[in-house]
Structure formats: structure tokens, C-alpha cells
Amino acid sequence: MALLGCSARDSQRAEDGREQLVGLRADDLRLCAGVPNLTAQSAGGDFWTYDRSPPASGVSAPVPVIGGSLSVSAGSTCRVTFQLVDQRVTRVGYAAASDLPLSQNAACAPVVQGCLRLVQDGAVRRE
Fold first, then answer.
1. Is the predicted pLDDT of residue 108 greater than 70, yes or no?
2. CB neighbours of 6 closer than 8 A, spacing ≥ 6?
3. Strand 88-98's sheet: what is its strand order?
4. What's the longest Cα–Cα distance across the chain?
5. Residues above pLDDT 70, as percent of the chain
6. How do residues 25-44 score in pLDDT, each as one tens digit?
7. Phi, psi for 94 (deg, rounded to 5)
8. Is 127 inside a domain boundary?
9. Residue 15 domain-assigned?
10. DSSP 3-state assignment of 66?
11. Which end of the chain is more exposed for a tag (fewer CB within 10 A), N or C?
12. How would residue 4 be classed by pLDDT, with cut points 50, 70 and 90?
């Protein structure tokens, strides 16, 4: 149950990033998210992609009848892509996979949460 709560919270953080990180400068994005795993350019702008595979979490409980254990784990992966035009974030896209319900983009939270914190604290400005 706690795993689902944390996962839902992280998924919401990722969704907050879709709105709150638009306008962030490229240098600020590098500062808070790090160096992207992949970059590409097109007529639509620059695209910076971050891939994350956080460690799976879960619980194990003994099952006496079988003599083994029952394991419930949450594995997930995330790819976050930022579109930048004129060195500013214009869009944030997620491609995520999760084993838990209501946590579609939860694995993406670590990529954006540092940036969200800087924006919310006023340490960086969006324009």
C-alpha cells in the first residue's frame, strides 16, 4: 500500500514537470537534471533525452503452505525528453513503463524533481 502511495506521488511530480519546467533555460536544465543520455536536433528544436531505470522495490512475505515466499515488486523504466527551442524548454514528454497501477510516470520523477525544486524555490526562472 505504501509503495502505491509513493508511486502515485512520484507520478504526480512527473506530471507537474510537464507544466512547471516549460521556459527553463538549457543551462539550468543541465544544472538540475544533468547531462542527457541522448541529444538530437531537428527543425522543431533540440531534443535532450534522459533514460532512467531506478532499482526495483518490493516486499517479500513467507507463504508457509508452499514453503517459499511471495514477492511483490515494482519495476519501472522511464525516458524523459525535453524539447528546447532557442535554448528554452518548450515541452516535456515521457515514455514510461511501470508494473504498478496509477504510477505510469513515477520512474520519471527523479529526472525532474531537482528541477522542480529549483523552480519552486525561485533559484531559477522560467520565461
1. yes
2. 106
3. 38-42, 45-52, 76-85, 88-98
4. 63
5. 71
6. 999 999 999 999 999 999 99
7. -120, 140
8. no
9. yes
10. coil
11. N
12. very low
